[in-house]
Amino acid sequence: MWSRRRIALPRRALHITAPRRRDIFDPATIQRISEDVDVCIVGAGPAGLSAAIRLKQLEREKGSEFRVVVLEKGGEVGSHILSGAVIEPRALSELLPDWSSRDDHPLKQPATSSTMRFLTKKYAILIPHPPQMSNHGNYITSLSQFTAWLGTIAEELGVEVYPGFAGAGIVYGEDGNSVTGVRTNEVGLDKLGRMKDTFEPGMERTRLALQELIRKFDLRKDADPQTYGIGLKEVWRVDPSQYRPGEVVHTLGWPLNYLTYGGGWVYHMADGLVSLGLVIGLDYANPYLSPYKELQRMKHHPYFAKLLSGSSTRVAYGARSLNEGGLQSVPKLDFPGGALIGCSAGFVNIAKIKGTHTAMKTGMLAAEAAADVLSESDSSEASDMSKYDTAVRNSWVWSELNEVRNLRASFNTSMGIWGGMAYSGVDSLFLRGRTPWTFRNKSQSLDAEHTLTASHFKPIDYPPPQPPLSTDLLTSLTLTGTNHAEDQPVHLRVRKDGVEDVCLRKQHVRRNVGEYAGLLQRACPAGVYEYIEDDAVSKEEGWDWEKVGDQLAELYSLQAV
Known about the structure:
The protein is α+β, with helices and mostly antiparallel strands. Helices cover 26% and strands 20% of the residues.
């Protein structure tokens, strides 16, 4: 979020013009409409909307007037949020103490039980679960509906929410060392970067804002690299005989082997719906692993097959990346002119498998710091949000993450997977983080560095889909609600230090296909990556990876599908 800054917000309207020759988009020649705002928040998720609501509350308390704008890339608030979550209402109760008395709130289904099961190929064995995974007082809900509800409250308080506007670029001050605003994405470019009749201006650096800020202001200087997991989720309307409202189940073990960090879940939501899924740490070793096919295989376990039997039907599918680094990977949170809030900064409590409550609290703390800045500072100066960083470190968010800081990290120590499981059990049950040590990533290694080359493994023999229980990926994608134009710009870009060129694409294709057997086209749960074999390279003659890399890179065979 940015305080007292300028936002380039082009006005978009439906219009029809005569066909004309398409010119290449040149940012230097485009004039943009600029509007002054007090606070610009990028992303209408739980953190961003909590920040916006809290700012409007403080506006009334201080007798001031703040213009608060929220940019949301989705077509409507909540449309890019994956449904099915267990929410701890701690932050919500602080933000909106009367939330439970509002007739329109979406937290209708309280969690009634929490269990953990260890899966073998045929059995689901009950095992003790860590106290952090207790869900007493929590609610199972659609996170999409929850976010949309927060958006309605924000607008009622006077927040300006703009769906369909992604924060695509950063605007720096004249000194180049402070942030003065953001630019929205351009609309109406074809896949060759030419302006169509529907073109509206924006900024070219799409989806790079966060990493750009972290690099420019060296925010990760004292933090470990962030680590990630990939979470795949389906929502089913189950047969009434299998529906147990409020039941929460987490799983370990099958279909993942002992070398792979991850686990599954089943949440019985309201209205006969069940959210189920699988999270896999992106530090997995085997490049032949397919997260999507692992989820499909998991559903054939007898426990899941029974749950999804009878008249059960699948209604939604989706996936997203998760921050797993914990406290050690949280960067410096403020920079001249703004701050990082919510999951973008890495506040997921991986032991609880929850992050909504911590994200909301960071948004609220950022709002309080921004309100102080707006009341005290000169608008011509870069906003100093350092109070926010201090406030987070003194809050219950920091204490909560500190307690579980060593759990996920223990799996990447010399103890290995089994040692990590043993340590996590002892720490979560008895030590509760009260240790003088903290496991750090001293080598600064990234998830990708844990993945071995394909020569170390044999391809995984996944069973074919067996509808309706399991399906191919394209069938699942029809349930995501996403819509992409055939003629839109390619969004898969191969860069190093912000620089992109043909040589980098060649190196990427050559290494990914030649050494890792095309890992990315299996790793992506949406089938975005596709490597197309060139007929000019004969299998009988053996693969010429230099030639393949050159041809694929030149022909843009690394495609966005």
